[in-house]
Specification:
Layout (H helix, E strand, L loop, with lengths): L1 H7 L2 E3 L4 H13 L6 E3 L4 H4 L7 H5 L6 E2 L12 E5 L3 H12 L4 E6 L1 E3 L3 H9 L5 E9 L5 H11 L4 E6 L10 H5 L1
Parallel strand pairs: 1-2, 4-5, 4-7, 7-8
Antiparallel strand pairs: 1-6, 3-5
């Protein structure tokens, strides 16, 4: 799959806000030469209350392949940086707010290919005392993790762990209680 992306000079993205999606599509429309665009967006985000954008977010700015945590004020106090993409952002933010933790930053990866290694490294390096974790809904052997592990291994050698379900042949757990856990 990565070979196909490289040969066709594709863009693969998973925006987490309506404004990010808008700016991604606008960038695609203005890009010359045009290249294929693959966008992963779950239907659940259409109904998700938190997945909204202000009008100003549409009228200013541009597509950002990596979005830093806007809630962090003291980056040296952060002990863990959780990198993720898509709808999972809203679930993780809700859990952090519920637990009252102030030592976790959530960084969103909005574009997978071409991999924004420089942008991601710049954001992660701004947290000097933090370890890095990739979080995903899918089992460890599925989803973005195999690709992310390969790309970050090439980027700067920073150690990274994964927070996901155990490796499995099936993407579903077969149990809603187990899936929620």
């Amino acid at each position: 799959y990565l070979q196909l992306c490289a040969e066709n000079n594709m863009t693969v993205a998973r925006p987490s806000t309506p404004a990010s999606y808008f700016h991604l599509l606008r960038r695609q429309a203005y890009a010359r030469p045009r290249r294929p665009l693959i966008v992963f967006t779950p239907k659940a985000m259409l109904r998700l209350r938190g997945a909204t954008s202000e009008v100003a977010d549409f009228t200013s700015g541009r597509f950002e392949p990596v979005i830093d945590d806007p809630n962090v004020t003291d980056k040296s106090a952060i002990k863990r940086v959780v990198a993720l993409s898509g709808k999972l952002y809203y679930d993780v933010i809700a859990e952090i707010e519920k637990s009252g933790r102030k030592d976790v930053a959530v960084v969103r990866l909005e574009q997978f290919y071409p991999f924004p290694a420089d942008e991601l490294n710049a954001v992660v390096d701004s947290y000097p005392n933090a370890d890095l974790v990739w979080a995903q809904d899918e089992p460890e052997n599925q989803g973005a993790w195999p690709f992310i592990a390969l790309q970050l291994g090439r980027a700067d050698g920073r150690p990274i762990s994964v927070a996901s379900r155990r490796a499995s042949a099936s993407p579903a757990t077969g149990s809603s209680k187990r899936s929620a856990k």
